[in-house]
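ARCHIVE CARD
SHELF: 3
SLOT: left
DATA:
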Amino acid sequence: MTLDKSGSPAPAANDGNGPPPRPKVLVVEDDEVTQRLFKRFLERNGYDVSTADNGFDAFDIALREQPRLVLLDLMMPKLDGFGFLRLLRNSPVPDLPVIVTSALADVERKNQAVALGVKEYMVKSKFTLNELIDAVKRYTA
């Protein structure tokens, strides 16, 4: 038995007999209701989900857990989504795929996000949860 740093049993590696590991997605959203909705829906669709409600916490989690994908809100306290993207692009994981999920629908902000390397920009009032899952699958398959 392998122990982790705290002395607890470490999770067993996948030996091919169990189910494959669930892809990790980081949901960065300061609205608690939206965060819970995205988390539950992703978990029900086979994803392991971490959450953060500001860009600083999200950056720490992204470095530590290295998820397969980040779903990112733009308007958040402490550090907004644009600040998070700037940190991420100058980090050890600069190519981590990011999908923006924002209430901001203006072209200027979308262009700014695309210039910072986001894969997709989804306006919250214009997509369904099924469309969100389809987008997540494109970058976690």
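SLOT: right
DATA:
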Amino acid sequence: MAVRSKFSNIAFPAFGLFQVPHDFKITVDSIEIQKKEFGAWNSIDRYDKYKTLLERYISVKEEGQIFDVTCLNLSQLISKPVKWIIDARARIHDLSKKQEFKARNVRVVKVVKNAIWLHSVSYPFVMRKNILDPKEILNQSATIAYIDNVWVIYKFTSFPETVEMLKL
């Protein structure tokens, strides 16, 4: 059985912080964090069986607790310096320890609507339509990482780079 990565059990969307909080408390009906020692405790989730997890996070965010980033997929997560997240199943993940992943730089060979095909990868990558300009993306290369038996886009580059491993 293959070893799973630190990203393997994350359910998206995931709400992240760029620093690991000093402390956190989990109770039957809430999750609270203390970002810095002697800092204020902030509620990041209050359980309500009539609301989805996303609705609960939005209501807490309106009260002033703001996450550094919201990631809709693994590609977005690995491209940011996220150290700590709470995922869509209210599970906490400490991502502060780096892991090495096989990586390579490949050229973009085809773009159809919001799907991108990369050289030597047999399946397309689906991107958000608002960040995809087919004319420009065809002139790019992509750095991809092999995470949990799937290639994931790490970044796009204008010039090919030699990459064999990424520490994420």
